[in-house]
Design goal:
2 domains; 3-stranded parallel β-sheet; alpha/beta; 7 strands; 7 helices; 4-stranded mixed β-sheet
Length: about 200
């Protein structure tokens, strides 16, 4: 009988020790991570460094639980930051300048840059061999929201190349430009990524 009781008691003791060890074992506590929401102006290949940092867990390694939220248009990103819906807005600097110039007491501050250049493409409705900007003379191009970075970059590019007889349509919101172009608006459009999801 002792030969049966001693092994059973030993197994019970080992199981109890394992259960206690599992209960006391330190666990990764997601509550210790600082939650941070980032509003991005568009989902683009140009922002790959942000996506890689998130995908490889570098935010978590540095104590951050980051949520990236698509918030189309710099004006919408700025509104999300100003209303405290997000902690960081990811967009061009133009919106922070507009808010500051309006005399806001609590204005946005730019603190980092992820891209060095504008990521817009000019997309034509028809195939044009050996394209140059003069092909846009007398045509309509969807440029994005007036005062937005794509529209300002386009205006600067046209000005620098002495092209002034182009109808730049700024009535279409940034997030709706590809859909409007596919629907037949404009001869050209400025877009960030040209892919099958646009």
């Amino acid at each position: 009988m002792k030969k049966i009781i001693i092994p059973i008691i030993s197994i019970i003791c080992i199981l109890l020790l394992v259960i206690i060890a599992i209960m006391l074992w330190p666990k990764k506590d997601d509550n210790k991570l600082t939650k941070l929401k980032i509003a991005e102006v568009t989902h683009s290949i140009f922002y790959t460094p942000l996506y890689i940092t998130d995908a490889l867990g570098y935010f978590e390694d540095n104590g951050l639980d980051v949520q990236i939220i698509l918030t189309s248009g710099a004006n919408n990103v700025a509104a999300a930051v100003m209303s405290n819906d997000v902690q960081i807005g990811f967009c061009g600097s133009e919106q922070t300048i507009y808010i500051y110039n309006e005399g806001a007491d609590d204005y946005l501050v730019n603190f980092a840059g992820l891209t060095k250049r504008d990521g817009s493409f000019i997309v034509a409705r028809n195939d044009i061999k050996n394209f140059d900007l003069t092909y846009m003379k007398g045509k309509t191009i969807l440029g994005g929201r007036q005062g937005g970075m794509p529209a300002m970059t386009l205006a600067y590019t046209l000005h620098e190349n002495n092209i002034d007889d182009v109808n730049v349509d700024t009535s279409v919101d940034f997030a709706a430009m590809s859909g409007a172009f596919i629907g037949g608006a404009g001869d050209f459009v400025t877009l960030f990524d040209v892919n099958d999801k646009e």
